[in-house]
Amino acid sequence: MKEKKTDRAKKIKKVPGGRGIINGYFSFNNTILNLSKENGEVLCQVSAVAEQVAETTIKKAGDYGIQKVVLQVRNPGLGRDVVIKKISEAKTLEIEELIDKTPLAFNGTRPRKKPCSMFEITISNPKKVEKGSLAGVYACEVYLPDMDKTSSIYADSLDEAVKNANDFVDVYLQGKITNLERTLVRKDDIRKSLEEELD
Q1: d(C-alpha 71, C-alpha 88), whole Å
Q2: Do 128 and 155 sit in the same domain of this protein?
Q3: Where do the coiled-coil regions begin and end (predicted)?
């Protein structure tokens, strides 16, 4: 297990307000967690198997006097669910908000599908997970019709699950709108170019 420390000799200073951010980066062979202040200043970084990473980060948060965190996760991976469960069960740490920052792919080659509206997105009512590594947390399912995909959004409470699901949809729609705006700009440029050639 690798752990980066800024200065071993310095005495650890408590974080004012007791709040921080945990950023999780996941892949199929590694898990990295960054513990930082609310202003983004990194306090420590831990890289190892998911369970060890979560336990070490929870301990470090206690050392820095952090009691409440925003947990931000990015990318799927074998350790993602384990980390979320471990941190949510920690007695010394409270997750104020769980944010999924996994980027959504809007382009690429896909089979031709039946046209559908992006506004047919559906969000299920949050349900408490009863089994598995995430037992005890709440989950909302978000269905994206144009991708024919359902994503699960997790949180510690009903309200947080709904909020995180809505934030997820906002990011998705913003990406679709940005992509549409770029397409319209390209079409407008082509039209102007053709008009100039005809003149």
Answers
A1: 10
A2: yes
A3: none
DSSP 3-state of 97: strand
Q: What is the pLDDT of residues 116-173, one digit of tens each?
A: 444 466 667 777 777 777 777 888 888 877 667 777 777 777 778 778 777 777 777 7
Q: What residues contact residue 82 under an 8 Å CB cut-off, 6+ apart?
A: 50, 51, 54, 133
Query: Do 22 and 48 have their domain in common?
Result: yes
Do both 155 and 182 map to the same domain? yes
Torsion on CA atoms 68, 72, 134, 153, rounded to nearest 10: 120
CA distance 46 to 34: 7
Range of the domain at 25: 15-103
Q: What phi, psi does 46 have (nearest 5°)?
A: -125, 135
> Does pTM surpass 0.70?
no
Q: Between 9 and 112, whose confidence is greater?
A: 112
The helix (run of H) or strand (run of E) holding residue 35 is strand 31-36
Nearest to 53 by CA among 82, 74, 29, 19: 82
Q: Are residues 83 and 121 in the same domain?
A: no
CB neighbour burial string for 3-35, b if at least 16 within 10 angstroms, e if fewer: eeeeeeeeeeeebeeebbbbbbbbeeeebbbbb
